[in-house]
């Protein structure tokens, strides 16, 4: 086939493999790799490289014995000669000689060609294989709340026998991660991520922390966990091998050995040495004895004193008094890694690994209360903060997240052992719609055909979907409805405020203790229905364009917020506008900085004073051009911004 004039071909061609299904490890088979030349073709001297993973033990292709195993052939177009070179890691290099390969012509490589009597090519086996997990898990959001260039994540490990972990943690194998202190703040301790000012800058952090949310709330009062519930002893023994993981460690994110170049023999060797449980990798302090890095990442950053068991106040005091800030370098801190094996897995065999990964910590109201008290104390690390009968320092409160981790892991373990047969909550609504109106906000929903709920609960908050400062970011229960309800009108709302909602399906009290489930009425998750677009009271559309108003005008940032809008710092309203219109906002030099498509049929629209690129506008004179999409008439309104 010659399609040199076919402009539809990709420049460098395409390749397919047949068959493309999953392969049983160690099995014999035949695979055809077909390359179709692109619009550029391949001139004499041009090459095609076919790579495979450098750590594979798949058989080496051979081209001399058609009756022997692993025989491989290359078929080229007439007049094209192909030289074949087998490079390290079983890479094939095909070099074109003679005629060029024309656009659209095919080159077929047949691995395990059986036409001459070969039994086929042996696929990769799994001999003494280690399965390794490594994560770049950091506290990205909380690190910004203290405006520092690094998250400072610390990690500890439970279950490697290096410490006395106590009876409560018996049988637990997990990584524990939390936000540590950092090198760039001197007036406060960053454990828990105290929120103390609005931030902007790197990674588009502008707006992550609004000005109102600077009262000290702890943005990182929780711990990450990466737990091992079960690992088979071998492919033929499904009992839980408590000696797994055989490797645990803490590495610097971004090091080459965590993402090696397959053709870089040195990097691949580093990766192998790091992952292998019997070999030493001195860069990370590996003992070369049992595969578990010690001291742990968190221990390296903490003082030696006071000495005491891991599950005691001594641990909390040491971790709360982090001294070696260099132990978190680079800025993100260390990351966890763990591996299970080595296993030898034959054709058709498998092993099962079960992990429980998540986060757990202080409830939102506790994080707010403790953070506010810490800020009000002048960032005093020794200040005792009381809440519901408990009295601890800020750091001790944050590190008590460990108890929530333990509770979650015990429940995960019980869930796994039950065959995931724990009590289930009722199904959430299949649809949830929130509509703004002139005198009410209307909510409606549908249910699944097999819904098993006994009622509904509706929750509401103001301003941002996470709530507002004055109500401590809490959603308020506004309605409890019977199972037959499919709608609700919320009339207890104030004009000019934005509202957000979610609805829960509620069920009967379930007393089945399977999976450590508590005897309580289960409810569906809020995140199935939580709204992220604001709902508010809106006026009917204006009767004429002459009625259009911009409020407040001028907008004065230093004015009392009651004169502006009570729920948002940067907010401008367009009133009495047509039900369907386009609002284009221009600077005084005629630059279009924002456009709003208004289509909900009401007479109200709001703008957060930001440009199309999400930049807050500066002081100046601006013009709003409002065009009625039904009549095509337009009107221009001028307004002022004073910051």
Strand tally is 34
* Separation of the first and last Cα atoms: 69 Å
Q: Which runs of at least 5 residues are low in confidence (pLDDT < 50)?
A: 1-5, 141-150, 200-208, 280-288
Described by the principal axes of the CA atoms, the overall outline is: globular
Helix share of residues? Answer: 10-25%
Determine the strand fraction and express it as a percent band. Answer: 25-35%
Give the biggest sheet.
Answer: 5 strands, antiparallel
Radius of gyration: 32 Å
Which structural class is indicated by helix and strand composition? mainly beta
Per DSSP, the total helix count is 7
Give the overall pLDDT as a whole number.
Answer: 85
What would you say this structure looks like, in words?
By secondary structure, the protein is mainly beta. Helices cover 10% and strands 32% of the residues. The chain is built from 7 helices and 34 strands. Strands 11, 12, 13, 14 and 17 form a 5-stranded antiparallel sheet that branches. A hairpin with a 4-residue loop joins strand 20 (431-436) and strand 21 (441-446). It is globular.
